[in-house]
Amino acid sequence: MKNEVIYNIPLRFRKMENLHIVFWLFKDIAWCMIWKPLGIMMIFPTLIISIIIAWRTRDFMSELCHNLAITVWISANSYWMISEFFHFDSLPLFGDLTYKHLAMIPFSIGILLLCFYYIYWKPRHQDEMETM
Length: 132
Hints:
132 residues; mainly alpha; two-stranded antiparallel sheet; 4 helices; 2 strands
């Protein structure tokens, strides 16, 4: 414990992260309750703050990859919500795929970002403090 490395987040960054969670929850509650104006309105602060958080952590590959994965997750989640709100989620796109399935594109990008980090980047930088 004495030699344990501590990762500090500046309080102003932490406050923004906490506010981000509030916006995200409001967006998802609005989705669940089919409150279209609130759900759509909450996309913007949720997505903008996730982008800011990713930008602020760009110097730490582990944080950047995870925060970018969150950003594309919010994008996919927001698209899915909109597709349900405007009733095009179940319309056919190709074969058995519907427009809702387009959300798999950003979801997959998030998985690829995390695969890049855990399979490629982290094993090649094991001696660096941020990956320990």
